[in-house]
Structure formats: C-alpha cells, structure tokens
C-alpha cells in the first residue's frame, strides 16, 4: 500500500558548496512511499495526491527532512558522556576505558545496545557509522538492536592490542578470528555493514593494522574507521611509536588502510601533505565539533578540506561529544566554522548532516535526500511545542531563513517522529540498569 507523508519538505539535491540551487524547499509538500519503504514521489502535496488519490496520508506541522547520518560515534561510551578528564589521553584512561570494560557483561551490553539505538533514532539519526564494543557479543547485540529498530548501521569490533587495560585487548590471532566471524554474520544483511575498527595508531601494533589491511582486501564492501590528528600529545606519541612514517596519515597508509570506504575522525591538526593524500585516496574525514570543544582538541578547518577536495561528514562522537543526534550537532558545526570566518548557510548545514554523509559512505544511491527510489528515511522536526522557538520562527522572512534558524536551535524534543523505510520508530521507555 502506498502512503503519503505531508509537511514542509527540505532536502539537498546537489553539493551546496558548488551549487547555489542545491537546497530544495517544498512548502506543503508530500512524500509518497511504497510498501517496501522506497520513495515513489516527492513533490507538492496536490501533485502527489493526484498521482495517488486513494493513498492514506499522515500530515505533520514543522519540517520533514532526510534522516541524519552520523559518521562517528562510540557504542560503549553510551553512558560516559560529559565524563571528566583533562585532555584526550587522560580522559580515555580515567573515564572511557573503564566504561568500555563494562560491556564484558553481555546482558548489560544488550540493554545498552537497545538504549544506544533508541537515542540515535529518537534524535533523528537513521544511519550511523559506529565504533562497536571490544566484546564480540556486545558488538553483535548492537547489530541486532539496529536491525530490529530500523537503524542503518555500519559498525565492527573495536580492535586494540596495546595501551589499555588487558580486558579491552585482543591479540592479533584472536582479533582475526573474531573479526572474520562477525564479518560473515553481518554480510548480506539488509542495512547492516561491517566496518573494521582499529581504534587509533596508539592502540594498535603494526601487526594489528596489517591484519586490518588484509581483511579489507579479503572481503568486498568493508568499511574502515579510525581516529587521526585529534590532539597534539596524541600526534607526538604516534610519531614516536611509528618513527618511519612521514606523518600520522602515513601510518595508516603503510598498512593499506586508506581508500574510498575509510572514515577518519577529527583530522584537526593536518598538514597539506596529509590533505592531499586524503583526497588522492578519497578517504573521508568526520568532523565532530562538540567533541573537539569538549576535549579542548582544537578547531577543525572545513575550508581546508573543501579546498583539497576531501569528503567530509559530521559525527557526534559520543561520549566525548555532548549531542546524541547529528541534528543538534549542526549548531556546533556552524559555530566551529564561524570561528574561522566560514559562515555556513541552511543548505550547507543540511547537506553536512545528510547527503554529505551518504556520499562519504557511498550510500547515496539509497539515502541522503528524497530522490525517487531511495529509502524513505526521514525525520519530522517541529517546534510547535516550544513556544519560544515558535515565536522566533514566526519572525523569519523566508522558509530558508526559518530552516537555518531551526537547524541552529534544534533540540532532541523538536524531533516529532523518525521514520526508516517508511515505518515510524516507536521510542523505548526508560530502561533500568
Ligand atoms: Zn571517537
């Protein structure tokens, strides 16, 4: 049965950093969605209604936007947001490794997986590239929860063989065996994708990174995710650990870890040579401003990445980040770039939260906007129950201005509904632990 979803629609149909007409706003618009969750039409409501005269419809006030794409977030840090630490390495040791060790308890991890997926979907995120747990049953629980709830998930076992408590480490042989098992379980499942996840160079020996390169070549369609150039102490320690490498990126490059399915989080402190190599290899970089502010890591230059042609997407980086949803993260993206005199407009903000992520993950044939044939993944953002914001929006002179203001002031309670493949997500109640 075809269904119609009606509201003011906004989506991005091209790259707004190159095309001034990339943003499409359809006032009083409608999506027509087939039974299998695929978009049949996106147009003015009367036009769509004429094509599907008998279809039942659901109407919303507010905006209907594509589901957000989170390019970097940690599942085992669900309960570690706003933990105290001075900077990255101290914070990891003091607050994060103990939190991640708790996922050895499989029933706890299974409940945490349901909570994590719930937090993403109720914040309007419908696709996420996620650092899984170091514990295979916990990593497996995350895939299961995502599949049940409708979240499109790219994830994998977090791999570390040094620099953390023993309980979080795997030797290379065990890492290989666990990774192969999980890859084979996940491959072929709808809307699930496996991502090899060497935490970062300081957590992984040369042999562990060698293994990741070999696995990436052995299986089709795997992603690789890791961290890079987040913090000065981390960069110095990495240079000391890999003295033969030209720079931080070269550590990963030597083991065959760069390529169009690789996403590197942060890249705040990068020289031009690294940006050039990222572009050549078409590796993507994930911008996580709330995390960068929280840990005092620095300010990411979007302009330098754009100038070098490096694909960029946005991530929340929970637990260093402080927003569970990319929708709310966009306000931090705006401020981080304002600090460097790059003033993003509504089209560019919406692009970074949706189509840019879809493109960087090579999923733009399925998600990112409302082109016919894509998955009906969308979020309804509505300030009707927020009197202050409703009043503020009433002073906007155009729908584009209103979208810009809404994107900068979005809060989780503005998410009225999240749909994946045309089905409404039903948020969980509070779980006890
Ligand atoms: Zn991270």
Quick structural overview:
By secondary structure, the protein is α/β, with parallel strands linked by helices. It has 2 domains: 120 residues, Urease, subunit C, domain 1, CATH 2.30.40; 293 residues, TIM Barrel, CATH 3.20.20.140. Helix content is 38%, strand content 22%.
Features:
433 residues, 16 strands, seven-stranded mixed sheet, 2 domains, single chain, Urease, subunit C, domain 1, binds zinc ion, 16 helices, nine-stranded parallel sheet, alpha/beta, TIM Barrel
Set down the secondary structure blueprint:
Layout: E1 3-12, E2 23-33, E3 39-44, H1 45-51, E4 57-66, E5 68-74, H2 88-101, H3 106-122, E6 125-131, H4 136-149, E7 152-156, E8 158-159, H5 172-186, E9 192-198, H6 206-218, E10 223-228, H7 232-241, H8 248-254, E11 262-266, H9 272-281, E12 284-287, H10 289-294, H11 302-308, E13 312-314, H12 326-338, H13 346-353, H14 355-360, E14 378-381, H15 387-394, H16 399-408, E15 415-420, E16 423-424
Parallel strand pairs: 1-4, 5-6, 6-7, 7-9, 8-9, 9-10, 10-11, 11-12, 12-13
Antiparallel strand pairs: 1-2, 2-3, 4-14, 14-15, 15-16
Helix pairs in contact: 3-4, 5-6, 12-13, 13-16
The site of zinc ion (ZN) has 5 residues, from strand 5.
């Amino acid at each position: 049965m075809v269904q119609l979803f009606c509201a003011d629609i906004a989506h991005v149909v091209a790259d707004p950093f190159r095309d001034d007409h990339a943003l499409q706003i359809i006032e009083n618009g409608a999506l027509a969605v087939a039974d299998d969750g695929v978009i049949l039409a996106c147009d003015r409501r009367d036009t769509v209604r004429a094509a599907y005269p008998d279809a039942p419809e659901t109407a919303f006030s507010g905006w209907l936007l594509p589901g957000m794409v989170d390019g970097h977030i940690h599942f085992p840090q669900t309960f570690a947001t706003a933990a105290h630490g001075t900077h990255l390495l101290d914070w990891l040791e003091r607050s994060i490794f103990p939190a991640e060790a708790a996922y050895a308890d499989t029933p706890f991890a299974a409940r945490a997986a349901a909570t994590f997926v719930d937090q993403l979907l109720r914040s309007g995120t419908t696709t996420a590239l996620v650092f899984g747990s170091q514990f295979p049953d916990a990593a497996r629980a995350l895939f299961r929860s995502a599949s049940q709830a409708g979240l499109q998930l790219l994830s994998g076992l977090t791999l570390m063989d040094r620099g953390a408590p023993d309980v979080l480490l795997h030797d290379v042989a065990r890492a290989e065996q666990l990774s192969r098992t999980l890859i084979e379980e996940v491959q072929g499942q709808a809307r699930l994708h496996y991502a090899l996840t060497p935490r970062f160079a300081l957590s992984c020996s040369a042999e562990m990174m060698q293994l990741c390169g070999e696995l990436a070549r052995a299986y089709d369609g795997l992603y690789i995710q890791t961290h890079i150039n987040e913090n000065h102490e981390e960069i110095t320690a990495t240079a000391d650990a890999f003295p033969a490498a030209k720079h931080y990126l070269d550590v990963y490059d030597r083991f065959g870890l760069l390529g169009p399915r690789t996403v590197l989080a942060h890249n705040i402190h990068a020289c031009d040579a690294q940006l050039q190599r990222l572009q050549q290899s078409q590796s993507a970089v994930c911008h996580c401003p709330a995390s960068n502010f929280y840990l005092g890591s620095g300010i990411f230059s979007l302009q330098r990445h754009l100038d070098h042609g490096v694909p960029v997407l946005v991530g929340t980086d929970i637990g260093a980040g402080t927003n569970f949803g990319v929708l709310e993260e966009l306000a931090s993206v705006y401020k981080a770039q304002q600090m460097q005199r790059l003033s993003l407009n509504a089209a560019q903000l919406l692009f970074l939260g949706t189509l840019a992520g879809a493109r960087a993950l090579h999923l733009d044939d399925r998600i990112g906007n409302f082109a016919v044939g894509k998955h009906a993944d969308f979020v309804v953002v509505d300030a009707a129950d927020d009197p202050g914001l409703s009043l503020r929006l009433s002073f906007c002179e155009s729908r584009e201005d209103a979208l810009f203001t809404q994107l900068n002031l979005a809060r989780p309670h503005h998410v009225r509904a999240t749909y994946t493949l045309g089905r409404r997500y039903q948020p969980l109640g509070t779980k006890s632990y």
